[in-house]
Amino acid sequence: MKSYYLTDTGKVRSHNEDSVTIVRNGSGEYLLVVADGMGGHRAGEVASSLAVTHLGKRFSGASSIGSMLDAVNWLNDNVSEINEAILEYAKNHFDSTGLGTTLVLALLTKDYLIFGNIGDSSGFVIKNHKLHKVTHDHTLVNLLVEAGDLTEEEAKVHPKRNVLMKALGAAEKVELDIFEVEKDVDGLLLCSDGLTTMMTKEQIEKILEEDLTIEEKVAKMIKKCNARGGNDNISIALLDMKSGCES
Question: With pLDDT > 70 as the criterion, what percentage of the chain qualifies?
Fold first, then answer.
């Protein structure tokens, strides 16, 4: 296994509201997390950092996450705690209008692989040189696409394409969508929409196939996004499951 993560402000935004991490616990299990914050007076970075830091600390401090059912319960409990903490922060900071964050995560053990998401940050598996999206975006346009009212091409340019239907901190209760995935994959890629709105899956796949280190691949994807305008913060967490080295 080899892993690397990186975040970048991009070329348009004045500050970075994304947060990202990859952590291992005492049993060598992996947790990858990306969060894309939103809200007034830099509150977005508070919300995303709170989510990523909370999960990272709890996971790295655990000797093992246990069975898949244990993991699902652990994720749901921690997401509820994060949501409550964001709501509490917003209540005590009146300049934090619209405070919230997306969340996408992947949890890998020797026995199972699960993904979870809230919002429009994305989780992919890499298999047979292809990216396969696991998560489903909680956006207005995605609902319209699923209902047959919009095509995927129309959704990409729709004026309300950034409207979220679900986010941490947006309601008293929020549920994490959880997906069980076969472990027989070559790698995992998690990202904020700063990557997926600037690069196609095919363009990302091309970089992943290049003879580069994992660090160089992540850096090149961010560089390409910025070369295309860098309209948003860009965060990437990449895990190479076929590499013989650990990091």
Answer: 98
In the chain, what are the domain boundaries? 2-240
Q: If 0-12 CB within 10 Å is exposed, 13-18 middle and 19+ buried, where does residue 2 land? A: middle
The closest alpha carbon to 103, from 122, 89, 90, belongs to: 122
**DSSP track, 62-91:** -S---SHHHHHHHHHHHHHHHHHHHHHHHH
Backbone angles phi, psi at 206, to 5 degrees: -60, -40
What is the second-level CATH architecture of the domain 2-240?
4-Layer Sandwich (3.60)
pLDDT tens string 26-83: 999 999 999 999 986 678 999 999 999 999 999 999 999 999 999 999 999 999 999 9
The CA distance from 114 to 134, in Å, is 10
